[in-house]
Amino acid sequence: MSITSFNPPVRTLMGPGPSDVHPRVTSAMARPCIGHLDPAFVGMMDEVKSMLQYAFQTQNQLTIPVSAPGSAGMETTFQNILEPGDKVVICQNGVFGGRMKEVAERCGAEVVMVEDDWGKPVDPNKAEEALKANPDAKVLAFVHAETSTGARSDAKTLCKIAHDNDALALVDAVTSLGGSELKVDDWGIDAIYSGTQKCLSCTPGISPVSFSQRAVDVITSRKTKVQSWFLDTNLVMGYWGPNAKRAYHHTAPVNAMYALHESLVMLQDEGIENAWARHYNNHLVLRAGLEAMGLNFVVEEEYRLPQLNSVTVPDGVDEAAVRGRLLNDFNLEIGAGLGALAGKVWRIGLMGHSSRYENIFLCLSALESVLGDMGAPINKGAALDAATAAMK
Ligand SMILES: *Cc1c(COP(=O)(O)O)cnc(C)c1O
Questions:
Q1: 82, exposed or middle or buried, with CB in 10 Å at 0-12, 13-18, 19+?
Q2: Fold of the domain spanning 23-269
């Protein structure tokens, strides 16, 4: 038997990422591969950097795409800032805060955890208490948009608390970049990382990061080498840096960079505030439909992420069977619960190119069809009217 070309099914992606990739982005990826030190490619790299500054709302010079997925962005921020023996306060209210702990421990750092319930935002008071109790902490780290639960934390307040206590603010913005208000310079974020496959309508595999001058000063005055050669920003900047001679460090994923470039052009054309507003307004449409069906949100209204909607699975419903039928019968992917919420919730993503009316109405009608057929306790026939009424 011989193996032939792989032709993936065409799906609608409404899970926690990857989200739908815009056709402009996939066609950009199919353009010819050129050398990664070709002057034409180098010019494009500069454009990517300046468009990332726009996306992050920052003037930070050290704003680059790491050639690997969001988790590598997490590693890049922690590994460059932390040295063995440093203390870091990490806030956890879902999966990704726990992953931060793993990464920080592998940097040899001493970790102080601040725990909040899954589905709740990070409590700024607890973060402040932890910093007061640990005045030698170098960093306060937290997840802005917790994709595992759908909760948004108050990044602006948490950054202020970090600075008031002489700590750097390190932020996971994998799911917030392009989807919710995020202002790196205004809020004083010192180190931030994101991903391309959530709210940027792009393919997975690249992680935009940015470091403030304060963070750069910390990195350049390290006593020890960054443990990872590949993620050491001192070395990467020889490749991506301003006025750099563009020495070979690694081979950038050339075509993936075309994809990121195209998605950032689209973000500029839409306008970042408009992108945030689109994600929010579409969330209201989906929400109207889900609530009319009788489904309940996990996260309190004030802290809900528009791009990640967690709803409780109705009693007696086999949540995995529902997801299976959505995928097989409707080519629709939604997300399962993770960790403390496993088996209890669905996570419906409205990220990037997935955040549009067609997807919302497909999701509502497919969900109603499947749940209705399974005899689940839902209101039938109300969701689409409610969603229509919520359209602006
Ligand atoms: C998806 C995600 C990550 C990890 O990104 P990968 O690209 O899967 O490595 C990290 N943090 C958050 C909040 C995420 O949603």
A1: buried
A2: Aspartate Aminotransferase; domain 2 (3.40.640)
Q: Which residues line ligand 1 (CB under 6 A)?
A: 17, 69-71, 96, 143, 147, 172, 174-175, 195, 204
65-124 pLDDT tens trace: 999 999 999 999 999 999 999 999 999 999 999 999 999 999 999 999 999 999 999 999
Residue 123 corresponds to which amino acid? D
Strands (E) located in the chain = 12-14, 62-66, 87-92, 110-115, 139-143, 145-146, 151-152, 168-172, 191-193, 207-211, 308-312, 332-336, 345-349
- Please write the tens of the pLDDT for every residue from 214-254: 999 999 999 999 999 999 998 988 888 766 678 889 999 99
Q: Within the chain, which residue ranges are assigned CATH 3.90.1150.10? A: 272-390
Ranges of CATH 3.40.640.10 domains, the chain: 23-269
Domain 272-390: give its CATH superfamily. Answer: Aspartate Aminotransferase, domain 1 (3.90.1150.10)
Q: What pTM did the predictor assign?
A: 0.97
386 Cα–ligand 1 center, Å: 32
Ligand 1 test: best mutation among 96, 149, 152, most atoms within 8 Å of CB?
A: 96
> How far is the CA of 332 from the CAs of 244, 325, 352, 370, in angstroms?
45, 9, 16, 12
